Amino acid sequence: MKAQALVITGYGINCERETAHAFELAGATSQIIHLNDLIEMPEKLDAAHILAIPGGFSFGDDIASGRILANRLRYKLGAALNEFVEAKKLAIGICNGFQVMVKMGLLPHFDQSMQQEVTLTHNDSSRFEDRWVHLAIDPTSKCIWTCGVEVMEAPVRHGEGKLIARDNEVLRRLQSQGQIVMRYAHDNGNTASGKYPVNPNGSVDDIAGICDPGGRIFGLMPHPEAFLYGYNHPTWTRQPLIQEGAGLKLFKNAVAFAEEKLVFKS
After folding, report:
1. Cα 123 to Cα 203: distance, rounded to the nearest angstrom
2. Are the beta carbons of 26 and 18 closer than 8 angstroms?
3. What pLDDT, in 10s, does the model give residues 205-226?
4. Which 8-state DSSP code applies to residue 242?
5. Which of 157, 168, 164 is nearest to 210 (CA)?
6. Quick check: 137 and 144 in contact, CB under 8 A?
7. Which residues make beta-bridge pairs with 215?
8. Which of 32, 133, 231, 240 is deepest in the core (most CB within 10 A)?
């Protein structure tokens, strides 16, 4: 039996097909489901092992990026999502999905609390950033999705990707609990230290992605689903061709974990 991935679509989400394809390449079965259908049929979450909130511009990013979708999920599917998380299933939010997760309190999820502790706000450059970035994976991170990955590349494409914490204590807790998964870095693996455009948005501590305390819920601004094949990379014609893009490893990790820990218990 394969792991089952549920990928949300609707209202401006535009990376659902790439995300579903990534799970299928990783060995799972995936279903793309419209937000309204999931609200009408929350039992779909019971059958799923992995939930994905893809990138895009949900609800036109009105008010703030991800805010409206975050409210819809929290107030229309809150009970079902709590059950999903309590069952120790996996979830990923990519770009706009990451913005959704932090604004509904699904990340960083301190003490199982759905309280917003961080946000993703306007880039320091005051412009939409569309570029490939280098990422250094924190070796102390508990994230299941990045297990065995030390560095990788992926594209970013966002106008509100600057992560800031509510206060210094929140940042300290993210650091000490191994919840900072990846940081923007130079091509030699050294973190950006805030340098633009290595850090494309000005995120505090160069943070590009965080996870929950258990490492199962993961949010990141870069797009791993956009680097599934070697020829997705902009320099693929000038380098020896690799068959597998670095982003696919994240999905393979999640599917392998789900099949080992969740599939035969569901």
Report:
1. 8
2. no
3. 999 999 999 999 999 999 999 9
4. P
5. 164
6. no
7. none
8. 133
* Cis, peptide link before residue 42, omega less than 30° from 0: no
* Containing structural domain, residue 217: 4-265
What single-letter DSSP state applies at residue 62?
Answer: -
- The DSSP bridge partners found for residue 218 are 92, 211
Backbone angles phi, psi at 66, to 5 degrees: 80, -10
Give me the sign of the Cα torsion angle 180, 16, 160, 120. negative
> Known catalytic residues?
95, 223, 225
For the chain, the maximum distance between any two Cα atoms, rounded to a whole number of angstroms, is 50
Q: How many CB atoms lie within 10 A of CB 82?
A: 13
Number of structural domains found in the chain: 1
Q: Is 211 exposed, middle or buried (0-12, 13-18, 19+ CB in 10 A)?
A: buried
Residues 2 and 251 sit within 8 Å (Cβ to Cβ): no
pLDDT band at residue 231, thresholds of 50, 70 and 90?
Answer: very high
Report residue 76 as tokens.
């229309």
- 152 strand-pairing partners: 135
Token look-up 């991800």 returns 66
